[in-house]
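Limitations

Structures in this collection are predictions, not experimental determinations, and the ligand pose is part of the prediction. Treat each record accordingly. The example that follows, with glutamic acid as the small molecule, is included so readers can see exactly what is and is not provided: the inputs are given verbatim, and the output is the predicted complex.
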Amino acid sequence: MSTSNQKERTRFAPSPTGMPHIGSIWIALLQWLHVKSTRGELIVRIEDTDRNRFVPESEKAIFEALNWYGITHDEGPDIGGAFGPYRQSERLAIYKPYIEELKEKGTLYPCFCTAERLQEMREGQQRDKKPTGYDRYCRSLPLAEAKKKMNTEPYVLRLKMPTEGESTFADKIRGEISFSNALIDDQVLVKSDGWPTYHLAVVIDDHLMEITTVIRGEEWISSTPKHLALYKAFDWQPPVFAHVPLILGTDRSKLSKRHGDLSALSFRDRGFLPEAMINFLALLGWHPKGEKEMLTRQQISEEFRLEDVHAAGAIFNEEKLRWMNGQYIKALPPQRFIQLALPFVLQSMVAKGNREMVLPVSGKKISNGLLEKSLLAVQNRLQQLDETGAAITTYLEPKDDYAGELLIAKKSTAVNTIETLKMLEEYMQTIAESDYTEEMLEKILRQFITDKKLGVGETLWPLRVALSGEAVSPSPFSLASVVGKQETINRITLASQKLSSQHE
Ligand code: GLU
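Predicted complex:
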């Protein structure tokens, strides 16, 4: 239990069983916020005792994700520390004497049940609609018989869970939680190859690493009584437990593959910004006092209190994340935005087979000026950086193979459209090059429409199509400001010729 003069220590304890999941990063963030808000320390410990589920690349991806999300730690296998080693597979010798201690105390008993027997037992329990769990068959074996069998048969060591009384603990998020001991399974603590299971290693390590607060997912609540039984057997003070809720999709079911790609690094690859991710994730199960939703990491860590995390499921709303990310993209300094967006543009060109980085239709090299202007024109409209490539295509090279009819606005005619395009062609000549900015063009052209008593749609539609060649595109003001005066006029000329040639 933490006392006031003891430094808070918590740990992120991922099992390297695959690519890190966003839910795992969310828990790491809560742990990080907790140590920031208490000036404590965050330890990373790799829980790799389950060799069947071990994935070698996983650990690297875990650190890559922590690093990208900016979740820093004070001790871990990568940076060392006074309580290492920080991989459970490297701590086997450390566990040995503790296993002996438990054996001597009679907290463990050998179990010789075969996989077949356990399977049959489970099927029987399911058939009788009873809770599944070990039936304690080997618990009552006479000591002498058990000792003899241990020399000849494979066995695991199970926890001799008390069968009477209650296990109670004060969860920092949920308040008091109680379990009737009789309902708790005699968990396997040491496997037949001598390796400890998670349940034993976690207790020994949390104790030896002087962890004061264990923050973990709610799926571990029912394991806590087993861990408490071990603390009691060792006569150790248990840490404080805080079980955070599950993350749910907007349909309120547990977040899963069905809800999209949830690997922590996929958010990076789709062009989310780490600041947006942190802001969004922090708000999943916790709310700041005020109404403000856009908060920096610093602001969040100043206000965060672990006990304020909600116990109810946290809803992961990707639409909201996209919106928030859009706000962060918009707020980026222009040069920083360009720097972050460019790799996504290159990636989308390469994906389309355009390794030379040329304009697909004309084959002309993309000029840096045009590229930069196009990027800045779309900065405010993006929600993910991986949308950049598609968003700037029209700016870089509008389509010129569109049908002339596309230029005709609803309720207008070819004759009127040709007339309008001619007027625009002439008028755009009179606008100074320096006024070719989105805001100025919008102001000037709207004034022109009013002065000439033209229809808004009847004027801006053909202008926009002339500049983009598409039915749906950015505004004509934005397009004209990026391509500049000469190109704007060229495109209007082309449009009016296209329509005239069809309607002569
Ligand atoms: N290794 C466990 C996991 O990956 C950690 C459980 C705990 O924090 O105690 O979920």
